[in-house]
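Cross-check.
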Amino acid sequence: MTTSASVPTGPDSAIAPSGTVTDRLVDANERYAAAFTDPGMDARPVLQVAVVACMDARIDLHAALGLELGDCHTIRNAGGAVTDDVIRSLTISQRKLGTRSVVLIHHTGCGLESITEDFRGELELEVGQRPAWAVESFRDVDQDVRQSMRRVRTSPFLLHTDDVRGFVFDVRTGLLREIDPA
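Predicted model, tokenized:
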């Protein structure tokens, strides 16, 4: 796995004194595009699976699951929470792009375990407006995975809820641990 710490820092990859991280990403894209060839893929995932996972930068989902480009739809957010927007994405994924399975991946050491819904109140005090969204904080990662599985399985918008499985990714070992939905 490549990490920011292992990315070369030589003259070719250095950020100009006035450059930003975004400038670095745009430069990297130009190098990528120079060698890019259209793989001719369809938007429908080959494995007919959608993976919902936390946005945590320590998790390389494709590598961890042995996935290749085009294999799955990947939906990521803070905590891997099954929110209305995740249901929206899964609904489009299933109804218009052919996915049939849903894999939910939360992880150990998640930042949402260390904050509370009070964060919304703090934001309201700071900016004068309370966010409409929930923080989706939790204390028990296994229970949070179960809640996410229930949200997927009970959504009236999803056609395929028989193959919904939830896991906890251990950020120290890289292993998945399956969560019993009961």
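Strands lie at 49-54, 72-77, 101-107, 164-169, 176-179. The two ends are 34 Å apart (CA to CA). Passed to J.P. for a second look.
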